[in-house]
Amino acid sequence: MESSDGRVYRRLARALRVGLSVSLVLLASGLVLGLAAGSPAAEGPAAHASGLVLAGVAVLLALPVVQAVLAAFTYWSQGDRGFGLAAFGLVVIQCLALLAARL
Predict the structure, then answer these.
(1) C-alpha to C-alpha distance for 88 and 70, rounded to whole angstroms
(2) Total structural domains within the chain
(3) Domain span including residue 58
(4) How far is residue 66's CA from residue 69's CA, in Å, rounded to a whole number?
(5) Among residues 63, 19, 58, which one has the least CA distance to residue 50?
(6) Could you tell me if 72 and 87 are in contact, meaning their C-beta atoms sit under 8 angstroms apart?
(7) Which range is most confident: 9-13, 22-26, 67-71, 82-86?
(8) Angle at 85 between CA 4 and CA 19, to 5 degrees
(9) One-character DSSP codes across the chain
(10) How confident is the model at residue 5, as a pLDDT?
């Protein structure tokens, strides 16, 4: 039987792999579309290219929050309330940091 930590690590690793893959696809698509468009223009393919690149960066920035949420729910569902609350506290701190950066 696998330990609860092993399940948490496996879920976090899967989330990281999926998030990085999605981000890589978005960034690469934006780069290829931007290079194919030529000069950066406010309209046309270049506008879509910058949107794809921004989406890829947003996915990368969201990964730590997603992993903390995933860890909190996984620990909580396994009955480990201490680690679940600690991971939830990390989510709160990350969200407060994002809000403070927006101000």
Answers:
(1) 9
(2) 1
(3) 4-102
(4) 5
(5) 58
(6) yes
(7) 22-26
(8) 65
(9) ---HHHHHHHHHHHHHHHHHHHHHHHHHHHHHHHHHH-S--SSTHHHHHHHHHHHHHHHHHHHHHHHHHHHHHHHHHTT-HHHHHHHHHHHHHHHHHHHHHH-
(10) 73
Q: What is the CA radius of gyration of the chain?
A: 18
- pTM score: 0.74
Nearest-angstrom CA–CA distance, 72 and 89 = 9
Q: Would you state the pLDDT for residue 36?
A: 81
Whole-angstrom distance, CA of residue 103 vs CA of residue 96: 11
Contact, 94 vs 68, CB < 8 A? yes
Q: What is the pLDDT of residues 56-91, one digit of tens each?
A: 999 998 999 999 999 898 888 888 889 899 999 999
pLDDT of residue 40: 60
Q: If you write DSSP's letter for every residue of 78-100 in order, what string do you get?
A: TT-HHHHHHHHHHHHHHHHHHHH
